[in-house]
Amino acid sequence: MINNTLSSYSASTPSIDTELDLADTGQNGIRQLESTLSFSPSLPLSTSARQTWLVFAAAVFLVTVPVFIEAPIVRALPSLSLALTGFWVWLSFALMSRPATYVWGDLLLGFSWSWLAGAIYWGWLRWEPLWHLPVEFIGLPFACWCLAKNWGKVGNWFYLGSLLGTVLTDVYFYIVDLMPYWRQIMRVDADLVPQILQNALMQVQAPWGQTWAILFAAVLLTVGISALSRNQRHWYAFGGAVLSTILVDSLFLLAAIAA
Predict the structure, then answer these.
(1) Which sign does the torsion angle of CA 223, 160, 179, 186 carry?
(2) At the N or C end, where does the chain have fewer CB atoms within 10 A?
(3) What is residue 48's predicted lDDT score, i.e. its pLDDT?
(4) Helix (H) or strand (E) holding 26
(5) What is the pLDDT of residues 82-125, one digit of tens each?
(6) CA quadruple 241, 246, 247, 248: dihedral positive or negative?
(7) pTM for the full model?
(8) Quick one: how many helices (H) and strands (E) in the chain?
(9) ∠ CA 166-126-109, rounded to 5°
Protein backbone atom coordinates (compact mmCIF):
# COMPACT_ATOMS: atom_id res chain seq x y z
CA MET A 1 0.00 0.00 0.00
CA ILE A 2 2.85 2.30 0.89
CA ASN A 3 4.48 1.42 -2.41
CA ASN A 4 1.28 2.27 -4.24
CA THR A 5 1.05 5.58 -2.43
CA LEU A 6 4.66 6.49 -3.23
CA SER A 7 4.25 5.42 -6.81
CA SER A 8 1.15 7.52 -7.14
CA TYR A 9 2.96 10.51 -5.55
CA SER A 10 5.92 10.14 -7.90
CA ALA A 11 3.55 9.92 -10.84
CA SER A 12 1.79 13.09 -9.81
CA THR A 13 4.98 15.11 -9.32
CA PRO A 14 5.69 15.78 -13.05
CA SER A 15 2.22 17.24 -13.45
CA ILE A 16 2.96 19.73 -10.66
CA ASP A 17 6.28 20.67 -12.27
CA THR A 18 4.55 21.06 -15.60
CA GLU A 19 1.99 23.41 -14.09
CA LEU A 20 4.75 25.46 -12.49
CA ASP A 21 6.59 25.67 -15.82
CA LEU A 22 3.43 26.74 -17.57
CA ALA A 23 2.83 29.39 -14.94
CA ASP A 24 6.37 30.74 -15.35
CA THR A 25 5.96 30.74 -19.13
CA GLY A 26 2.65 32.56 -18.83
CA GLN A 27 4.17 35.21 -16.55
CA ASN A 28 7.10 35.70 -18.93
CA GLY A 29 4.66 36.05 -21.82
CA ILE A 30 2.68 38.66 -19.90
CA ARG A 31 5.88 40.60 -19.16
CA GLN A 32 6.85 40.51 -22.86
CA LEU A 33 3.38 41.62 -23.86
CA GLU A 34 3.45 44.50 -21.37
CA SER A 35 6.89 45.50 -22.64
CA THR A 36 5.64 45.46 -26.23
CA LEU A 37 2.57 47.50 -25.38
CA SER A 38 4.63 50.03 -23.46
CA PHE A 39 6.76 50.74 -26.52
CA SER A 40 4.21 50.35 -29.31
CA PRO A 41 2.61 53.81 -28.96
CA SER A 42 5.90 55.43 -29.99
CA LEU A 43 5.67 53.83 -33.43
CA PRO A 44 2.41 55.45 -34.58
CA LEU A 45 3.41 58.70 -32.91
CA SER A 46 6.67 58.71 -34.87
CA THR A 47 4.83 57.99 -38.10
CA SER A 48 2.25 60.66 -37.33
CA ALA A 49 4.93 63.25 -36.57
CA ARG A 50 6.70 62.45 -39.84
CA GLN A 51 3.47 62.80 -41.80
CA THR A 52 2.70 66.07 -40.03
CA TRP A 53 5.97 67.57 -41.22
CA LEU A 54 5.34 66.20 -44.70
CA VAL A 55 2.01 68.05 -44.67
CA PHE A 56 3.89 71.22 -43.74
CA ALA A 57 6.39 70.74 -46.58
CA ALA A 58 3.60 69.98 -49.05
CA ALA A 59 1.75 73.14 -47.98
CA VAL A 60 4.84 75.25 -48.61
CA PHE A 61 5.27 73.65 -52.03
CA LEU A 62 1.62 74.11 -53.01
CA VAL A 63 1.70 77.83 -52.19
CA THR A 64 4.58 78.29 -54.63
CA VAL A 65 2.92 76.21 -57.38
CA PRO A 66 0.54 78.95 -58.58
CA VAL A 67 3.47 81.37 -58.82
CA PHE A 68 5.96 79.25 -60.72
CA ILE A 69 3.81 76.62 -62.48
CA GLU A 70 0.28 77.93 -62.90
CA ALA A 71 1.28 81.45 -63.95
CA PRO A 72 2.98 80.38 -67.23
CA ILE A 73 0.06 78.06 -68.05
CA VAL A 74 -2.48 80.80 -67.39
CA ARG A 75 -0.65 83.28 -69.61
CA ALA A 76 -0.60 80.92 -72.58
CA LEU A 77 -3.69 78.74 -72.01
CA PRO A 78 -6.09 80.24 -69.45
CA SER A 79 -8.91 77.85 -70.39
CA LEU A 80 -6.65 74.86 -69.81
CA SER A 81 -5.64 76.21 -66.40
CA LEU A 82 -9.29 76.62 -65.48
CA ALA A 83 -10.12 73.09 -66.67
CA LEU A 84 -7.29 71.68 -64.57
CA THR A 85 -9.26 72.67 -61.49
CA GLY A 86 -11.68 69.85 -62.26
CA PHE A 87 -8.76 67.44 -62.51
CA TRP A 88 -7.41 68.51 -59.11
CA VAL A 89 -10.84 68.05 -57.53
CA TRP A 90 -11.23 64.60 -59.11
CA LEU A 91 -7.74 63.57 -58.00
CA SER A 92 -8.36 64.84 -54.47
CA PHE A 93 -11.52 62.73 -54.08
CA ALA A 94 -9.73 59.74 -55.57
CA LEU A 95 -6.98 60.07 -52.96
CA MET A 96 -9.50 60.59 -50.15
CA SER A 97 -11.24 57.35 -51.08
CA ARG A 98 -8.28 55.43 -49.61
CA PRO A 99 -7.24 55.75 -45.96
CA ALA A 100 -3.52 55.65 -46.79
CA THR A 101 -3.75 58.72 -49.03
CA TYR A 102 -6.70 60.52 -47.47
CA VAL A 103 -4.70 63.39 -45.99
CA TRP A 104 -3.08 64.18 -49.36
CA GLY A 105 -6.44 64.25 -51.09
CA ASP A 106 -7.72 66.52 -48.33
CA LEU A 107 -4.81 68.91 -48.83
CA LEU A 108 -5.18 68.83 -52.61
CA LEU A 109 -8.86 69.76 -52.37
CA GLY A 110 -7.98 72.92 -50.46
CA PHE A 111 -5.31 73.68 -53.03
CA SER A 112 -7.94 73.36 -55.78
CA TRP A 113 -9.63 76.54 -54.53
CA SER A 114 -6.39 78.49 -54.73
CA TRP A 115 -5.76 77.11 -58.22
CA LEU A 116 -9.29 78.03 -59.34
CA ALA A 117 -8.91 81.60 -58.08
CA GLY A 118 -5.54 81.94 -59.79
CA ALA A 119 -6.89 80.60 -63.07
CA ILE A 120 -9.80 83.05 -63.09
CA TYR A 121 -7.93 86.14 -62.01
CA TRP A 122 -4.63 85.75 -63.87
CA GLY A 123 -6.38 84.42 -66.93
CA TRP A 124 -8.96 87.18 -67.46
CA LEU A 125 -8.81 89.84 -64.74
CA ARG A 126 -5.11 90.42 -64.05
CA TRP A 127 -5.16 93.97 -65.46
CA GLU A 128 -7.16 95.22 -62.46
CA PRO A 129 -5.71 94.51 -59.00
CA LEU A 130 -8.97 95.50 -57.31
CA TRP A 131 -10.47 92.21 -58.50
CA HIS A 132 -7.71 90.11 -56.99
CA LEU A 133 -9.01 89.67 -53.44
CA PRO A 134 -12.68 89.14 -54.40
CA VAL A 135 -11.63 86.31 -56.71
CA GLU A 136 -9.29 84.81 -54.11
CA PHE A 137 -12.24 84.60 -51.70
CA ILE A 138 -14.12 82.33 -54.11
CA GLY A 139 -13.55 79.20 -52.01
CA LEU A 140 -14.20 80.80 -48.62
CA PRO A 141 -17.90 79.84 -48.29
CA PHE A 142 -17.11 76.20 -49.12
CA ALA A 143 -14.15 76.14 -46.69
CA CYS A 144 -16.23 77.60 -43.86
CA TRP A 145 -19.06 75.15 -44.53
CA CYS A 146 -16.68 72.17 -44.49
CA LEU A 147 -15.01 73.30 -41.27
CA ALA A 148 -18.40 73.80 -39.65
CA LYS A 149 -19.10 70.15 -40.54
CA ASN A 150 -15.63 69.17 -39.23
CA TRP A 151 -14.67 67.78 -42.64
CA GLY A 152 -11.60 68.38 -44.79
CA LYS A 153 -9.71 70.22 -42.06
CA VAL A 154 -6.24 69.88 -43.62
CA GLY A 155 -7.16 71.24 -47.04
CA ASN A 156 -9.51 73.95 -45.86
CA TRP A 157 -7.10 75.26 -43.26
CA PHE A 158 -4.41 75.27 -45.94
CA TYR A 159 -6.71 77.39 -48.13
CA LEU A 160 -7.39 79.79 -45.23
CA GLY A 161 -3.66 80.13 -44.54
CA SER A 162 -2.96 80.84 -48.20
CA LEU A 163 -5.82 83.33 -48.26
CA LEU A 164 -4.50 85.13 -45.18
CA GLY A 165 -1.08 85.51 -46.79
CA THR A 166 -2.68 86.86 -49.97
CA VAL A 167 -4.80 89.36 -48.04
CA LEU A 168 -1.82 90.75 -46.12
CA THR A 169 0.27 90.99 -49.29
CA ASP A 170 -2.47 92.90 -51.12
CA VAL A 171 -3.06 95.19 -48.14
CA TYR A 172 0.66 95.97 -48.18
CA PHE A 173 0.41 96.84 -51.87
CA TYR A 174 -2.45 99.23 -51.10
CA ILE A 175 -0.71 100.90 -48.15
CA VAL A 176 2.62 101.39 -49.94
CA ASP A 177 0.83 102.49 -53.14
CA LEU A 178 2.16 99.72 -55.38
CA MET A 179 -1.10 99.11 -57.23
CA PRO A 180 -0.30 101.58 -60.05
CA TYR A 181 2.89 99.63 -60.80
CA TRP A 182 0.86 96.41 -60.82
CA ARG A 183 -1.44 97.84 -63.49
CA GLN A 184 1.49 99.07 -65.57
CA ILE A 185 3.28 95.72 -65.52
CA MET A 186 0.14 93.97 -66.76
CA ARG A 187 -0.29 96.35 -69.72
CA VAL A 188 3.17 97.20 -71.03
CA ASP A 189 5.63 95.23 -73.13
CA ALA A 190 8.07 92.93 -71.37
CA ASP A 191 10.98 95.27 -72.22
CA LEU A 192 9.52 97.98 -69.98
CA VAL A 193 8.84 95.73 -66.98
CA PRO A 194 12.34 96.03 -65.40
CA GLN A 195 12.08 99.81 -65.17
CA ILE A 196 8.62 99.59 -63.60
CA LEU A 197 9.95 97.08 -61.06
CA GLN A 198 12.78 99.44 -60.18
CA ASN A 199 10.30 102.26 -59.58
CA ALA A 200 8.19 100.00 -57.39
CA LEU A 201 11.30 98.93 -55.49
CA MET A 202 11.93 102.54 -54.52
CA GLN A 203 8.52 102.55 -52.83
CA VAL A 204 9.35 99.37 -50.93
CA GLN A 205 12.77 100.62 -49.81
CA ALA A 206 11.39 103.89 -48.49
CA PRO A 207 11.05 104.08 -44.66
CA TRP A 208 7.27 103.79 -44.95
CA GLY A 209 7.53 100.68 -47.11
CA GLN A 210 10.17 99.04 -44.93
CA THR A 211 8.20 99.68 -41.75
CA TRP A 212 5.06 98.06 -43.09
CA ALA A 213 7.04 95.18 -44.59
CA ILE A 214 8.57 94.39 -41.19
CA LEU A 215 5.18 94.67 -39.49
CA PHE A 216 3.41 92.31 -41.89
CA ALA A 217 6.33 89.86 -41.84
CA ALA A 218 6.15 89.81 -38.04
CA VAL A 219 2.41 89.10 -38.19
CA LEU A 220 2.91 86.23 -40.63
CA LEU A 221 5.74 84.76 -38.55
CA THR A 222 3.74 84.99 -35.34
CA VAL A 223 0.63 83.40 -36.83
CA GLY A 224 2.59 80.71 -38.66
CA ILE A 225 4.75 79.69 -35.70
CA SER A 226 1.75 79.73 -33.36
CA ALA A 227 -0.04 77.31 -35.69
CA LEU A 228 2.94 74.94 -35.70
CA SER A 229 2.97 74.86 -31.89
CA ARG A 230 -0.39 73.04 -31.91
CA ASN A 231 1.15 69.86 -33.39
CA GLN A 232 -1.82 68.92 -35.56
CA ARG A 233 -1.77 68.23 -39.28
CA HIS A 234 -4.36 70.81 -40.26
CA TRP A 235 -2.53 73.49 -38.27
CA TYR A 236 0.73 72.52 -39.95
CA ALA A 237 -1.00 72.93 -43.32
CA PHE A 238 -2.23 76.36 -42.21
CA GLY A 239 1.17 77.36 -40.80
CA GLY A 240 3.00 76.16 -43.89
CA ALA A 241 0.74 78.23 -46.15
CA VAL A 242 1.17 81.34 -43.97
CA LEU A 243 4.95 81.08 -43.61
CA SER A 244 5.50 80.34 -47.29
CA THR A 245 3.89 83.70 -48.08
CA ILE A 246 7.06 85.30 -46.71
CA LEU A 247 9.12 83.07 -49.01
CA VAL A 248 7.11 83.96 -52.12
CA ASP A 249 7.10 87.68 -51.34
CA SER A 250 10.85 87.55 -50.73
CA LEU A 251 11.36 85.92 -54.14
CA PHE A 252 9.37 88.71 -55.79
CA LEU A 253 11.50 91.26 -53.97
CA LEU A 254 14.68 89.58 -55.18
CA ALA A 255 13.32 89.55 -58.74
CA ALA A 256 12.66 93.30 -58.51
CA ILE A 257 16.17 93.92 -57.19
CA ALA A 258 17.72 91.81 -59.95
CA ALA A 259 15.68 93.52 -62.69
Answers:
(1) positive
(2) N
(3) 77
(4) helix 2-39
(5) 999 999 999 999 999 999 999 999 999 999 999 999 999 999 99
(6) positive
(7) 0.81
(8) 12, 0
(9) 50
